[in-house]
């Protein structure tokens, strides 16, 4: 019996020894096996690559890096054009038209694409030399794929949604609304320039007044002037920009007054130094106050959003220092009084305006002679980023202030320019489509500048482009016409929608 017990004990020991040997052999075999070694390497590579890619998505673009990426195609020849109203001058490239069809995943038909005009240096961060661009793929500065096709100069954008707000007022569609317009083009004479009141011209078709913008995923409440004034009680709304900013200002004044005379509204321009200088055609801006709610609405002319200082104040023909990295003195002086600020720029950034105004670009207090800032498009991009950065730094000290940068208003010249037979004589609303569905803005300069800041984007470019029939065109008060104005809008009209979206975003 003892012998049998010893045999069992030794048998167990032998079994454990054999198992240990087999396990050791398997470990050695696995260590030397190339397939398993490769598998371990792949796993290690995946872990390392994933960690690295996570970091790469958060690398921001600096202001100068963004500026240097802009308008890098120097082969495009620039033409100087001018409208017939306020001598707006806009550079154009040789492409006849560029159509953007962004992310069609939610579209139901081809009419749901946004259509943009002849891309200009101030409209885009990329310029293409002609309308027969061969098919290819490039990358824009938002790391989005761009597909070029030569059939209709089509550019397909598929931007990332990571930087979008939850509510994109720029996506949606135009719908017929017989309750429009919001005010009368005949009655709003105190606030509305006669040249933009198309009801006073020879135009006979006003169907463009009857459309309302409906955002896809957002509520856009109907504008109600008494409710608006109550919301804006004891507040000041300031528009600073070019003549398109002036149109938006006039539009809001007509909306708030219902297009009526409203004699109780006070002219308070003197409080802001907005008085007509001797020999000037008009003052640098206007300011009006609604005494019942102490609401002030003002406009200041600053077509470049940069500080302009004459180099020799005693010489009327002196050059003017255009400080690209310094906000206008008016903005610096009165910023603390504003509750809502709306900026815009774009159509004055060209060689024609530079020569006409004797603007000389300065940065850091020194004339900018060398480097990329000598290129006008890049200088504009730099200025937009600079003023946004400055405002973002000021907002913590002005917690009541909300700042909006409005994207560029599109032009619609066809078959030439203002002085070469160009026109926008279409009177059929929405002939190019009624809907916009896209990821990102059609104005990448403004979109990139406000990204990561407290400055909000008022995105109106794509939705406005669908309304080529709503321009002032060649309709004038007098019989004779010097050409077509395909830059400014009839009022009532498209700028009313800009203000409805602004009101919703405030």
TrEMBL record:
Residues 82-145 are annotated as: Disordered. Residues 220-504 form the Trichome birefringence-like C-terminal domain. It is found in: Membrane. The chain crosses the membrane at residues 12-31. Residues 136-145 have a biased composition (Basic and acidic residues). It is a single-pass membrane protein. This is Protein trichome birefringence-like 14 isoform X1. Residues 87-97, 115-135 have a biased composition (Polar residues). GO terms for cellular component: Golgi apparatus; membrane. Residues 105-114 have a biased composition (Low complexity). Keywords: Membrane, Signal-anchor, Transmembrane, Transmembrane helix. It comes from the Eukaryota. Belongs to the PC-esterase family. TBL subfamily. Pfam families: PC-Esterase, PMR5N. Residues 166-219 form the Trichome birefringence-like N-terminal domain. GO terms for molecular function: O-acetyltransferase activity. The gene is LOC103500956. Its main location: membrane.
